[in-house]
Amino acid sequence: MPQHVPFPSFDALIDPSVLSSLLRRTVRSVATVAVEGADTSTDARFVSVAIDDEPTPSLFLKIVDSDRDWLAMITADDRHRAVTVWSEGVIDRMPPEVDAAVIACADWGDGYAVLMPNLHSELLAPGKPLTVRDFDALLDAMAAMHATFWGIPRSPPKRWGCVRRRHSCPTHRPRGLPSTDIG
């Protein structure tokens, strides 16, 4: 049973009264700007969301559209997994070591808009290697997540649209190995 329902539209999601409730602070005005040339691994589109004339937008909307997102295409994501794990309450259950960075979602044409905090300053810069401290934090987060979900049935409900083996293995196999359908 869904825990959250996507907002009916982008405009409904970025309404100042809605954002005030979601962010637990007063929001008087909202300005949005399409982010051109965003460097993403999925060809997703982004919209920056500035609140109350802030100089650096504190929020971003990621537009999840299966027709443009190559990762969604090769993994047969026809249910918008990012939105599904939010709406099903999976993100709410993540331990504190894991920040899924999803505030809310909204319908967006044939896809969805995922509202996220601006974490740009916390992302690893391209070409910068992970430090031992980074690896330790990453391992701690993975261990905490696995401990949280330990004992839950291995296969999530089909309605979630999670990646099945037949869609994930061929995309991660070493070059030169034959493709096999193991799903």
Short description:
The chain is globular, with a radius of gyration of 18 Å. With 183 residues, it is α+β, with helices and mostly antiparallel strands.
H and E string = HHEEEHHEEHH
Structural class: alpha+beta
List segments where confidence is low: pLDDT < 50 over at least 5 consecutive residues.
169-183
Using the CA coordinates, give the radius of gyration: 18 Å
Q: How far from one another are the termini? A: 26 Å
Instruction: Provide the spatial order of strands within the biggest beta sheet.
Output: 1-2-3-5-4
Counting DSSP H or I runs of 4 or more residues, the number of helices is 6
Can you put this structure into words, describing what you see?
- With 183 residues, the protein is an alpha+beta fold.
- It contains six helices and five strands.
- It has a five-stranded antiparallel sheet.
- The longest helix has 18 residues.
- It is globular and about 45 Å long.
- The C terminus is likely disordered.
What features would you highlight for this structure?
183 residues; 27% helix; alpha+beta; 5-stranded antiparallel β-sheet
Topology:
Blueprint: H1 10-13, H2 16-23, E1 30-35, E2 45-51, E3 59-64, H3 70-74, H4 81-87, E4 104-108, E5 111-117, H5 132-149, H6 165-172
Antiparallel strand pairs: 1-2, 2-3, 3-5, 4-5
